[in-house]
Fold this sequence. Notes:
alpha+beta, nine-stranded mixed beta sheet, 10 helices, 9 strands, elongated
Amino acid sequence: VTVEYKDEIGELAQTFNLMVGGLERAYGQIKNYALKAVVARKQEQKVRNIFQAYVPKHVIDEIFKSPDSMLVGKNASLSILFSDVRGFTSISEKLSPRDLVDNLNRYFDVMVDVIMAKEGIIDKYEGDAIMAFFGAPVQTENVGLQSVTAGLEMLDGLTEFNRRQKENRGPEFQIGIGINFGDVILGNMGTERKMNYTVMGDNVNLASRLEGLTKQYKQKLIISESLKERVDGVLPVRMLDMVAVKGKTQGVRIYSVKRVLEAVEKEAWDMHNAAMAEYFPGRNFGKAARMFEDVGRMLADDFASAHLRARCLEYEKNPPAFDWDGVEIMKTK
């Protein structure tokens, strides 16, 4: 209003004008905040849409819920999975770069869909290899069973992938998968320019070594004892050996696992596990060798029982030292 008098009416008019000016500024700030909120929501949705191609939705929700906590490393108990395509170098030599990438991406489509459906996080790709982990940032009820089931479903998915590859005259892939459960360091590693939400520690290295052992033990999937304890009674397991992986002296029991067994397989696996007890700590090498031979008769071309039978026959002739702990030292990764 116009201030016409220098008295109480004028002071009232001046106060009114100041109040209106303050309200206008406040209204402007409210509109500005509202605009920023809308932009922020759209930006958040855009970020979600982008990152849902890389990590599961529940991980993104956790990041937006507490972004600062995601930047701090912490101890966590997780399952770590490594997979690798066998003979990929020879496959790549027969394909053009474009065909190689196309085939590899089709393979990754299948594997990643399985892992993310089980709430796993793809940590990284290393050529044809995949590293993933389960149980972070949100811990589920049975991470161990979840990760092993993911490994089994990856093998199922590979069968279908190879069927389509054969129809299209593309190369068929064979893979090995190693899975371990244990304590790791979890967090964002790197710098402000480039960060990676990842896991580190001995249990990560062990998972990688288990994947490598699939070649030596002619298995598609090997799990550690810590995972065997979490799936035993739900999924059938067979002990393969007790090994100290390269770079370690302490032995770990390693196991193969399946979703279901036929009657003959179940009988063979039960006998195999019983033979392992005769082998160590029993040191009854002759008896163990005969039991492994029976397993071999039930399971055609079974490398695991044949390998252990040969070792038992050797130990029967040349017994190991008195303090032998049953551990085989691995010289290669």
